Predict the structure of Tautomerase.
Amino acid sequence: MPIIQIDMLEGRTVEQKRNLVQKVTEVVCETANCPAEAVTIVIRDMPFENLGKAGKLRIDG
């Protein structure tokens, strides 16, 4: 039973998330040889102020 966690910055629409879940599920089923019912996907939206890179918060540009 594959469990996939996707962390991404907030701002995607429900339709974009729906499409992401569908396509990721298809790929996992093909590669792991399992039914779609066995695939669980968790999407975690992250605020821009919770991501830092190269010593700066993403919210700071």
Notes: The first helix runs from residue 14 to 32. Residues 3-57 form a domain with the Macrophage Migration Inhibitory Factor fold (CATH 3.30.429.10). Strands lie at 3-9, 40-46, 52-53, 56-57. The chain has one helix and four strands.
